[in-house]
Backbone:
């Protein structure tokens, strides 16, 4: 059988996505996680710098050009920030297609990796189209919040792709007690609820992205308290997961994942309370979005660390019973 590395052109053979190995495709998977997390943070930068309508039309930047053109009514800085964020979409899309090509070229081909890889460019296209709706709605908080939540779902798909590239085909078996794994899954669900509450806080508070953008008609103190209560719930679930993993002598990878998540959550809490008492400065808002992105990724990591994928026919250990997901 001819392998991807058999191409006669040495330049093509040197391309990791064209001649992938089990190791190189994992690097592309990690790159997809990083760039999707990165563009989520730069999107927050657009908002806190009031650059959301720096390019007031879509798909064009201005009504007469796809590229930034100086207009007296638009700040050059705001235009550069918004257009720069749009350009990053092409980088994320390129990494997504590199993952698809690598998955298709991997020998032997794994259909599970191909399916997960295709979710990336598909999701990025959806994001780009939704970004146009965000601009056309003049940054309505519902469209802006949905834009962020689509990124959250896309990051989850990228993380699953990364996890699967480090595994062989086989049966999923949990490495911890059934109830501990369920606790990890509940933690992921609670973290997603926390992010949704954060969207409500963001859509109600300042930093709308532009002075003409509308806001949710909620009481900011109420939505902030709901967000804080959910944060306490997530931290409590994480602490419970960490204790359960330690007392059950769970694998070291699972314990380290839960500990790392708890550390990031505590740092995120410090940032959240600091920005609240300082009047929500723009820099800390951007840092808080970075923290929320990391909390989400590490919550996914904590959940996936409670299971492994073993070849069919492998005898399970007492803890390694079939898992459902």
Residues:
């Amino acid at each position: 059988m001819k392998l991807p590395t058999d191409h006669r052109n040495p330049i093509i053979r040197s391309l990791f996505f064209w001649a992938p190995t089990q190791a190189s495709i994992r690097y592309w998977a990690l790159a997809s996680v990083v760039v999707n997390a990165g563009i989520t943070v730069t999107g927050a930068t657009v908002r806190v710098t009031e650059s959301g309508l720096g390019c007031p039309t879509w798909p064009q930047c201005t009504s007469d050009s796809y590229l930034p053109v100086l207009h007296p009514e638009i700040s050059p800085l705001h235009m550069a920030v918004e257009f720069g964020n749009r350009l990053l979409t092409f980088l994320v899309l390129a990494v997504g297609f590199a993952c698809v090509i690598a998955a298709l070229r991997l020998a032997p081909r794994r259909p599970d990796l191909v399916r997960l890889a295709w979710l990336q460019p598909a999701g990025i296209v959806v994001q780009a189209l939704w970004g146009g709706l965000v601009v056309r709605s003049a940054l309505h908080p519902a469209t802006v919040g949905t834009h962020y939540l689509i990124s959250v779902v896309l990051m989850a798909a990228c993380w699953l792709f990364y996890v699967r590239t480090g595994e062989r085909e086989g049966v999923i078996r949990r490495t911890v007690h059934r109830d501990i794994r369920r606790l990890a899954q509940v933690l992921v669900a609670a973290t997603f609820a926390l992010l949704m509450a954060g969207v409500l806080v963001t859509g109600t508070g300042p930093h709308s992205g532009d002075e003409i953008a509308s806001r949710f008609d909620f009481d900011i103190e109420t939505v902030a308290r709901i967000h804080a209560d959910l944060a306490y719930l997530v931290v409590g679930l994480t602490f419970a997961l960490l204790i359960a993993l330690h007392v059950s002598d769970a694998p070291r990878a699972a314990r380290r994942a839960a500990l790392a998540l708890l550390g990031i959550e505590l740092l995120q809490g410090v940032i959240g309370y600091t920005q609240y008492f300082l009047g929500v400065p723009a820099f800390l808002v951007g840092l808080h979005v970075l923290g929320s992105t990391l909390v989400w990724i590490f919550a996914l990591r904590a959940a996936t660390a409670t299971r492994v994928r073993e070849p069919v026919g492998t005898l399970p250990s007492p803890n390694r019973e079939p898992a459902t997901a």
Q: What stands out?
A: The first strand starts at residue 171 and ends at 174. Confidence is low (pLDDT under 50) at residues 1-6, 317-321. The chain is about 65% helix and 0% strand. The two ends are 34 Å apart (CA to CA).
